[in-house]
Design goal:
One of its GO terms (molecular function) is tRNA (guanine(46)-N7)-methyltransferase activity. This protein is an alpha/beta fold and 257 residues long. The chain is 27% helix and 21% strand. The radius of gyration is 19 Å and the shape is globular. It starts with 23 loop residues before the first strand and ends in a 7-residue tail after the last strand. S-adenosylmethionine binds next to strand 4, helix 3 and helix 7.
């Protein structure tokens, strides 16, 4: 069902090596804590108990460096078209899709697994997580971690009383700003004009985001793809629908006067 999936207590608890095995090595940790095994506050609490042997193994990057971090998140990734497109463009960047629907997530998992089998050494940098991104982003990402966030064709929630359920809203923008790095880019695309206006208005009004100029957007090699790179975008294109898009940059907070 859509109501049950595991949620990590904090980003330190996510084992990304399961998602991106070729980017990680497991080395003996001599019982010491590894760089990615920060202590959680409730040490000793039932939920935070380390798995047996966890500290005997440290997960590091393949060159013995600290483990790499996910930098791009596709929120409500649907069938994963964006991840598949971006993977070869940024082969060294880890990216993850977040999707609420179980069956759709399973499809994306299988799609990525098949791509990896058919193309050895490729598509190792993309993965998918089934979760409610409106609730659990800070459980997965640290402050300032993400350099790109994507919201492509989010559900419109047309009725006024449902606008609070929209995935780009004032409250959640604070959370997105938190997980984004300064200078990082947040991309929104929709075929619903009213929703496009709404997302733009909310982002424009937020003190931690500024909108890129049309010229900057035209020069952004990712922004120019977004109209028809996903399954939803292709559907809109087939129906000759219009799309409305914006790119906003995460900026530094103005010091209080
Ligand atoms: N971005 C994809 C595309 O362009 O093809 C999918 C667009 S589809 C209209 C919106 C997707 O967002 C759906 O797959 C839906 O399950 C997902 N979604 C809605 N709310 C979500 C949430 N809170 N967390 C994660 N995914 C969500």
């Amino acid at each position: 069902s859509d109501s049950q999936f595991p949620v990590p207590l904090s980003p330190a608890e996510v084992d990304w090596s399961e998602h991106f095995p070729s980017f990680f090595s497991k080395v003996p940790g001599a019982g010491l804590e590894g760089p990615n095994q920060e202590k959680s506050n409730n040490e000793g609490g039932e939920a935070s108990k380390p798995k047996a042997g966890m500290r005997d193994v440290v997960v590091v990057g393949t060159d013995g460096q600290p483990p790499p971090a996910v930098r791009f998140a596709d929120i409500g990734c649907g069938f994963g078209g964006l991840l598949v497109k971006l993977s070869p463009m940024f082969p060294d960047t880890l990216m993850v899709g977040m999707e609420l629907r179980d069956k759709v997530t399973e499809y994306v998992k299988e799609r990525i697994a098949a791509l990896r089998v058919q193309n050895p050494g490729r598509f190792d940098n993309i993965s998918v997580i089934r979760t409610n991104a409106m609730k659990y982003l800070p459980n997965y990402f640290r402050k300032g971690q993400l350099t790109k966030m994507f919201f492509l064709f989010p559900d419109p929630h047309f009725k006024e009383k449902n606008h609070r359920r929209r995935i780009v809203n004032q409250g959640l923008l604070a959370e997105y700003a938190y997980v984004m790095k300064e200078g990082g880019l947040l991309y929104t695309v929709t075929d619903v004009e009213e929703l496009g206006d709404w997302m733009k208005r909310n982002l424009d009004a937020h003190p931690l985001f500024e909108r890129l100029s049309d010229e900057e957007v035209a020069n952004d090699n990712v922004a120019v793809l977004l109209k028809n790179v996903t399954e939803e975008g292709q559907k809109v294109e087939r129906n000759e629908g219009q799309t409305f898009h914006a790119v906003h940059r995460r900026i530094r907070a103005e010091p209080l006067a």
